[in-house]
Input
Amino acid sequence: MLRKRLAIGFTLAIAVVIGIQVNVLAFEKTKKTKTFKVRIENISTADGVVTDGGMKYPFALSPGLFVVNHRKKYFFQEGDDADVALEALAEDGNPQLLAKKYLTKVGTTFMGVFDKPVGSNMTAPILPGGAYEFSFTASEGMRFSLISMFGQSNDLFYSPKQALELFDADGNPLSGDITDSLVLWDAGTEVNQAPGLGDEQAPRQKMANTGTQEKAKVSLVKDKFMYPNTRDVLRVTITAE
Output
């Protein structure tokens, strides 16, 4: 009798476990999945952006990297030292070291480099009127982040303070203008010069990684120089397809 009861109890336990697993799988299958298209546009004027002394320079945005996963933050931590991968992006607009760093963590399905302007097969920054475009597929619970260098600077870059939720609580996909999510950061690796004028900035320096070291922490930009409002030079949109 005892053996019979144990057998029945064991059978019921297995049934409960199987039932839980089936329910979990059913829940996973009900998660919505969408393909998202992102467009990053340089909407600055061809006349240039005003800098110190009233001079003007063409605004440029470097090639960058995007990541899609479940983390709220990526690429860096405010208040920490920038590593060599972030330094390469922030100083020279080179996202390749960041891509290698995160390749094994998120995989190629959820990460990508954007480096070819729309209509071109060549790697290049986007100048006034230019744009980058890329797409990815994600499911509910996933977040999206990107990073790209402010091209006419020593070590400044754009990235959200935290990754963007791709679906809201009701399962609706993110869609529309997300420009306001981008923030201008200072990597703290190189002493800042006036944007568009510095001889140690990427467009004018003799070679990569040759500027005066600063040895500061990653932070929001807070120097004495003039920078354009993000909305005056960039437009970033995401569309759920």
Remarks:
- The longest strand covers residues 33-42.
- The CA atoms of residues 45 and 128 lie 6 Å apart.
